[in-house]
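Bug: token stream looks shifted between consecutive jobs. Job 1:
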Amino acid sequence: MINNLEEKEFLNKQIMHLENALADLKDKLLPHNPEMFEIMSSSYIEKIKEFRSEIDEFIGFQVIEKIDRSDIVIRLQGPEIGFGNAPISVVSSILEEVRKGFQNLYSFKQGYRNLTKIPNYISKACDMSLTNVREGSLQIALQRPTEQLSLLDEKTDFERTAELYLTAASWAASHGSVDAIKKEIPDIELREMALKSVLRLIPNSSKKINRVHLYGSLIKKDIFLTKITRDYIIENLSKEIEEEVIYTFEGRVREVDLDKGSFRLRELKGEENINEIIGHISDSLLDDLKENLDDVVVIRGILKNETVNSKTIQIRFIEKA
């Protein structure tokens, strides 16, 4: 095992001597006696491979190769992400959002809706392994669960889920047309779930992370997600038809009625003439509402009714402010 640069240089010289000896042997035995060359050269070749492997390990080449071969690599870039500087809270949050995004999509494809508890087999199916971490612009390498490896050409449920997730991410990153995403994911509920899952990965502030780069063996073309991507997803989640006027409000969630799918938004920011927003949500947004009970949130939706002191909004999007 190499411990310093001097030992590395020593091995480089040993490799050079072995290669010269191998070349000399080749000149003497080939092409007339290939069998003898194969026998006599094997020890040289094995030693060269051994020394090169030690050098690769010392310089970190094997780590880089392992990361690049991973199923999904998440590269985080931003003001608080640098060499030796990656807050655990940021990394753990990103990993948790990826896991939740995959679980939600996997559950949806399995026929589950609005679950309070994810079935154990789905949790295991989406529990990817952290295979490596590279510093600098922090890169987190993930591998699919071993149970989701297929010996056949057929795609596993995990691979189908990953394909759906990455299709939504790629579309958002390229600012694709609405028609394009509808063609890629025809089911409106599944499309909404996929876009929301990707949205979870993109921070709503650029103070810590300003770009998320996705690549790996499961990704055909590198994907770059930024706050602009985030805004584009939210805009398309909010609108069902191009002509709709979307209203945006920020305030605190109060008086939630999950059975009726309604709540009140109070303590409104920047709204002097309105006391409250009466929000109505569909079943697909119930989980988002549950995550933000009594929190300050941003809502987007269409106007259904209004009075002097309030507006009634059909909510299309909700998230923590």
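Job 2, same session, no restart:
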Amino acid sequence: MPQSVDRALDLLDAVAEAPGPVTAKALARRLDCGLSTVYALLGALTDRGHLARTPAGYTLGYRLPSLHRAFQRQLRIDERVHEVLLRLRRASGADVFFSTYRDGEIAVVDGVTAPAGSAFSVGRDPDAHATAHGKALLAALPGPARRQYLAATGMAPRTPRTLTSPELLERELRQVRRTGIAVEQEEAASGMACIAVPVRTADGALTAVSAALPVTDFARLRAPLTEALRRETAALR
């Protein structure tokens, strides 16, 4: 990838990850990049609507929501998905996500989280063996496709509790297929637990809805959150 494109994407990611408007100088420090280069990239991204300039600094731009809608349309993601996530977030307070398996890749494609952010984020997930949504999707795959995916991505430890044994993971995936629920506790991120429900949509797409919360709240909220996930995802099948 050309360096200028790589830097522009790094800049866009840095603005997206900031809690509020961020200045050009702060971006230059974060990216270890010359201020003149940062200003040039900011100008190009602002002109295209991917960023917006405010008195306090730069924010994501007005064009991004339309790009996200186009992304969902192209992947044929049910427009009801985001409403389901919003209802789950309001009812439980958990961070909630919608994930898919397509063409050999698992990715989180939508989410509703706390304003302060989440331990998980939208994007490609190379560590599906450690996440609840990943386990829900892996459990639903045919054996050859599942083994091919794990061979390609590996089973790197995200935390000391991450399963890195194919045999132990396969045993857990059999349990997921029996119960229709995938669970992980501090396997993907220390201090966090997650529950996921696989959803085979009407058009045959393999998807999952998941909810993440602090592990200290998990025992108390596991049962009502599981019930809410099953109830809300019924509308997507």
